[in-house]
Amino acid sequence: MTPLLSVQGVTKRYGAHIGCADVSFDLYPGEVMGIVGESGSGKSTLLNCMAGHMAPDAGKVVFDTRTDGPRDTLTMSEPERRMLGRTDWAFVHQHARDGLRMGVSAGGNVGERLMAVGARHYGDIRARATDWLERVEIAPGRIDDRPTTFSGGMQQRLQIARNLVTGPRLVFMDEPTGGLDVSVQARLLDLLRGLVRDMGLSAIIVTHDLAVVRLLADRLMVMKSGHVVEAGLTDRVLDDPQHAYTQLLVSSVLQV
Amino acid sequence: MIDLQNVSKTFTLHNQGGATIRVMDGATLSVAQGECVALTGASGAGKSTLMRMIYGNYMAQGGAIRVGGVDLVQAEPREIIRIRREVLGYVSQFLRVVPRVPTLDVVAEPLRAVGVPRDEAQDRARALLSQLNIPERLWSLSPTTFSGGEQQRVNIARGFAHAYPAMLLDEPTASLDAANREVVLGLIAEAKARGAAIVGIFHDEAARDRVCDREIDVSRFSPARAA
Amino acid sequence: MTDQAYNFAYLDEQTKRMIRRAILKGLAIPGYQVPFASREMPMPYGWGTGGVQVSAAVLTPDDRFKVIDQGADDTTNAVSIRSFFERTAGVATTTVTTEATVIQTRHRIPEVPLAEGQILVYQVPIPEPLRFLEPRESETRKMHSLEEYGLMHVKLYEDIARHGHIATSYAYPVKVEGRYVMDPSPIPKFDNPKLADCPAIQLFGAGREQRIYALPPYTQVVSLDFEDHPFEASRADHPCGLCGAVDSYLDEVITDDAGGRMFVCSDTDYCETRQAAGHRGKDAA
Questions:
Q1: Which of A40, B77, C96, C128 is 20 to 30 A from A30 in CA distance terms?
Q2: Looking at the record's lineage, which domain of life comes first (chain C) (predicted)?
Q3: Does residue A93 belong to any structural domain of this protein?
Q4: Domain B31-48+75-215 in CATH: superfamily?
Q5: C45-81 residue pLDDT tens
Q6: Structural domain tally of chain A?
């Protein structure tokens, strides 16, 4: 089987400081991988390098495109990469306002990706936006409201709907549940899990919340100081951590 | 179906002076289809450790653990996940679920994961829940708020929803009343009858005697004895 | 009566060359916003400094110049720009659309079809059609260069969602030759069809924003829309009160304190020409 995403030796330096160093892994269709580590461990840098938001100093990010098979997205032309970003890739930001247009209605936010790939039938766009609002448990009656009138959890769900409406195959998530109440987090996690299963999505989730990765991720990568210190099956890493840092991380979680 | 060869296990406690604890050596066992094997031994002998190694959430330092023809010691995570989804079921003592998800969906999920249509999966979930005497009014609620015994039964229903060819049972009859214990023993017998290979930990000796074909004392894999 | 203290058409020759280069580039890439080094003009921004610079760069001594503001030749802005070029270039001026060789306009396209050899110069306040949805210039430039125009339809979508139809009635975005999305300046969408396949050269100047763009003669210009909400040019509900025209863009004029009003052609030359030919509306004296 061809990996959906193959990351090879990705390295990013900020001057003398290491952002992330020599990171490699393969992600297969339908797999969800978590990346955990403390603040400054390089997990967000890695995510941004993979998603094309930042150019790494070395390495390859090979994506199995629909039309041409595996291609290094770092050497692709910018139009091609941006097209990927609108179609097969999705990016869920930690802060919904970074991923939404706050001055545009919920329906317009969801519809934008459809219009960006050529949808020109208002009725169809609206029907699909309505469908997606329902799938993320936002009342269809809110379709013409702006996200500024939504709660934090609703904004995050709207961001997810906006990202998934074009049926992407790979979703990058940066702390998708960060900053939300615990009860709202649970609802979002359940939603994400259902969507991942039903759509056969692959996802890469950056978080510092081990409970989130245990529920969502099949695999886990632990980062420290820009390096991957441990990787493997999520519950294996969490239940039987091998590296000193992972052991510290796991034992530091407060039990409830 | 489940085949362990010379499995060893070491814990290295990096944050406690790098202490290395060797807990298992030369673990070898084989469970055929339709067979149920009980792991026995004193508390701390390594029953749960062995069980977790078979399920893949503990890493073995040496040897081979084959389930359904795949060596889980060497396998890629996605391969282990496939085995868990299709081949190897695990009824643990603790229910771990996403909060807020209705009990019916929790039980149906393993079937949904192997592609069974929603209605069919829920029918099977309903049958199991009523068999295990979970009142119907609770099915639409999340099991996180249930009593310990109810959670245990939901966990069992979930574990038996899909007809796994291999199963791991960790104290399946603990904290159950006589009636529900009978139901669980019946489910185990059914699983054996359809050819499932089962490894279990049973403190309930009477239950162990009824469903298990063999016992393996894990203390014979403990390195202290080998040394 | 050219004031000899000024170079022809106010701007120095080097500046006019710079602007002409921008115009030529704009004509070569229809709809593309060409940056240019906009000069300080002796009038405030918002009064047509972009249009004036473009006019200054294209005027020749033989030209006949017309200026309209909202279609009218006799409003302050039109009068002062016209006299500005009378004084600094000494060119002939006219109010008759068909006689003019260069027409500077704010917010209208004349009703009389333009002809080959004519140049229509638009005053543009905000040249970037994507600006209200995407405030970053770096991002909008990238969107133009990569032809990422989904956002433009988001604006139209929002219109329909809020009003039940595309409520944008002026500065209605167009796509030029299937490539660049362009802001036609705040002309009413009534005028949008006239942009397309026009025999005249159309030049757009934005002074404050320092952009020039252009439509060469006979350019394909399509107003953006949805399949189920097609573009419709607005239609007046009334004939002109003065000349009786039913095909022109009308202004509403309040005539007394009792709420009396009349609708008249916004294109004064068109209206007067029709009245001179004997056409009369219901409010004509």
A1: A40
A2: Bacteria
A3: no
A4: P-loop containing nucleotide triphosphate hydrolases (3.40.50.300)
A5: 888 999 999 999 999 999 999 999 999 999 999 999 9
A6: 2
Domains of chain C and any CATH numbers: 13-223 (3.40.50.11310), 235-284 (no CATH)
C244-276 pLDDT per residue, tens: 999 999 999 998 999 889 999 999 999 999 999
3-state secondary structure of B13: strand
C51, C241, C271, C281: which one is catalytic? C271
Q: Can C31 be counted among the known catalytic residues?
A: yes
Q: Please tell me the pTM assigned to this model.
A: 0.85
A94 is a domain residue:
no
DSSP helix/strand/coil, A217: coil
- Please compute, for residue B19, the number of CA atoms within 13 A of its CA located in the half-sphere on the CB side: 6
| Chain A residue nearest residue C148, CA to CA | A116
Cα three-residue angle B168-B171-B173, rounded to 5 degrees: 115
Q: How many Å apart are CA C200 and CA C223, to the nearest integer? A: 19
Alpha carbon distance C204, C110 (integer Å):
15
Contacts (Cβ under 8 Å, ≥6 apart) of A210: A36, A238, A249, A250, A253
A219 and A148 assigned to the same domain: no
Do A237 and A175 share a structural domain? yes
Closest CB to B14: pick one of A28, A193, A247. A247
Q: Assess B113–A contact: CB distance below 8 Å, yes or no.
A: yes
B16 close to A (CB below 8 A): no
**Residue B98 backbone dihedrals phi, psi, to 5 degrees:** -70, 130
For residue B15, give the nearest of A214, A233, A244 by CB distance. A244
Place C280 in a pLDDT band, splitting at 50, 70 and 90: very high
